[in-house]
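Two proteins, back to back. First:
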Amino acid sequence: MHVTRIFIEGFRNFERLDLQELPPAIVLVGENGAGKSNLLYALRLVFDPSLPDTARQLSAEDFWDGFSAPFAGNVISVTVELTDFDGDTDAKALLGDYLVGTAPPSVARLTYAYRPRPLATSPTTEADYESLIYGADREDLPVGREVLRYVSIRVLPALRDAESDLTSARSPLRRLLGRVQLEAARLVQMEAAIASAGDALLKDKGVAAINAGINTRLHDMVGNVFAVATTLGIAPTDAEQLTRSIRLFINEAKQRTVGQVSLGTANLLYLALLLEQLAAQEESKESVTAILGVEEPEAHLHPHLQRVLFRHLLSSDRPLIVTTHSPHLASVSPLPSLTLLRDVGGRTMGFHTRGLGLDDKTESDLARYLRCHAGRDPLRQGRDPS
């Protein structure tokens, strides 16, 4: 399944943007301020189940700049069409009510709208507006969070703090470890081993002296009446909680933590863990598909690594939307994937190579030209790019 059409009206840079016949992998290029990040956020308004309802209630700044006034009956809408799911029974069951085309290939249409409330005769403020997501151009067919759990988008922003993301409670590693089901017998064995090791450690003379010193210090400071008795212990002591203390290390010999590696390596690790998490969710039927949106994946990466990584992302089956300024990434992108956003007379317009009608020879020549002008490809020279 992938996005085959994106239609945006009245949102930020976009008075009207209509991109059709899109391939599974979309590579957005364009100058700063052309609207690449805004396009990804528009897709989040439709697909992102983690986006709270309050974030879907937009503000005056979210209306197209060309409107004379933001809250004056103007409507913001984002329509997305999905296709290439005829062989997926789960996807067909999930999107069956939202079909606008049933002859193979089937096409499902979802729309986010921010519009005046039905009873607001003269809308002028946010209070007069409401947001809704519906399917198949029918507002009586709402798309709820139960649908967005299975067909969603995950966007990685540019210059993200991958180190913090990797160590947070919501990191992909924590999500993967949370899926581990330990056998009851092994749990008992591990908890007994943890308790035994903890007891041995706490009985050490040095550790016991620290515990005694803390209690003596408290007594000397505030006396018997106010002092509290303390004891040292091992936490956590059960095996299930222990899995939460598992950390990711780099370089088996040196055991370096994520905080000790480069920004590029941290971002690469985060992306690998995220892809592993998404694959695990799809394999267990917790998700039908997750669109991956990546802003400027070239940040912190060496040009050769950019090309190697991007080749892999483009060759995977996952629907992908990438924004980039890197000629190295553009050079390894299939021409039908390239989509240009540019300002034309104050309006952001979209142009994609898929609509050029190029024959195979011309497309091959252009692709070779892009590769040559982005620099030599180490993969074609038989060298290890790392």
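And the second protein:
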Amino acid sequence: MDNYTMMQFFEWYIPADQTLWQKLEHEAMHLSSLGISAVWIPPCSKGTSITDVGYGIYDRYDLGEFDQKGTVATKYGTRDELLAAISALHQCGVGVYADIVMNHLAGADQTQDITVVEVDRMNREHDISSPFCISAWTSFSYPGRKGKYSAFQWSWEHFTATDWDENAKRSGIFRICGDFKHFSENVDHELGNYDYLMYADVDYNHPAVVAETLSWGKWMCDELALDGIRLDAVKHINEDFIELFVKTMKEYVGRPFFAVAEYWKDDLSCLRKYLDSENFFMTLFDVPLHYNFQEAGLRGKDYDLRTIFDGSLVRSNPMNVVTFVDNHDSQRHQSLESYVSSWFKPLAYALILLRKDGYPCLFYGDYYGVLGDDPMPDHRSEIDPLMLARKIAAYGEQIDSFDQQNVISWQRMGDQDHPFSGLAVLLSNNDDACKELSFGTAMASSVWMDITGNITCRVTLSAEGKGKFLVQGSSVSVWVRQQVFQTAKKG
């Protein structure tokens, strides 16, 4: 079986020029040749404005089809352009994972007078007022869509809380009062109870909400011919509902269907508990590993590379994890800013792309560059060789040599299904280094090269299959048999 790799095909600062779906269609063949097996697309439902990245979700059923919020197209394009991009990806054998935003709705059409209790921002279990009335943006009638696809209209009873009082023109966290109204207990316990995140918080204790959301999920699967989903902000959503949603979608689709959830917390025990508590198959993003990468980049030679996987999800749950280097949330000037230093990115990508465990995710911003007021260059020239090595050489038994603080290495011994497979990866966060590694007599006299181009000399293995492999300081080298590179060039 070939190695699977997903790509997050957006970054936060993509311009609002409605051309991303066109670019995705154009790039479909290249992504396939690169070794991308599935693309995670941004939230494709209509947001609060043309500039909305998609997480300020307004109308779940508007994929760029209706004149709402001042635009027909979303930030990324029209519904027809989205469907054309998905079709192109599928024709190239690349799957599509939709970003599913279910925690909240934003940009309501009308206000409603409702009774609320204000809660402490730092402890949502603590009420700081008696019940009082506010004017809340909680009525969603979708006049531009006129009931197409769904006649469901959202009202105050479908939410648990909101954050704005239109009468007083002030913000706060206002828990909505009413029969059976309360924050869900099956959420993260940060800030006392982390059910509320932003906007009008959806109430998954309400039967009508559950039924409507399941119906929308099925519609999305059909409309976009989805191969999987990425679930946003699950630590804020009733865990019982997340389980029901994923189970329902998998059963409805009736074919292999991938589900990965974003539970943003640098706490392995919490992530493991979440996975262990679910009796359905899903995966989580390896947030702790991302923070290890960030720390390694910041500390340079003072970081002990032998500890790079300490506390990571990929080490403890290798079959239930998506590994990543950066994403839209970790970018500069975002609330979860924690981007990985540029010099360490190639090392980090080697650590997720060329090892046997985890489902690695390549970030659009790292591959195509980051735009906006604080742009960052792309790392395409550094990532391409790693992707090629993953595609044709990163197979077989893995042998680790994590024996030095500033230099680590591992080998993949190759397998019979991939001719000339096998590789050696060396990482250094300090000085130039050399390691003697053995591939056994079966590879005696074979010639090896650093596919990254960082080291230009060749290594010829001895009659015993041993060789001395090099790496430059603060760099990564990926050694493959020369035939691999020659075969790839012919292909």
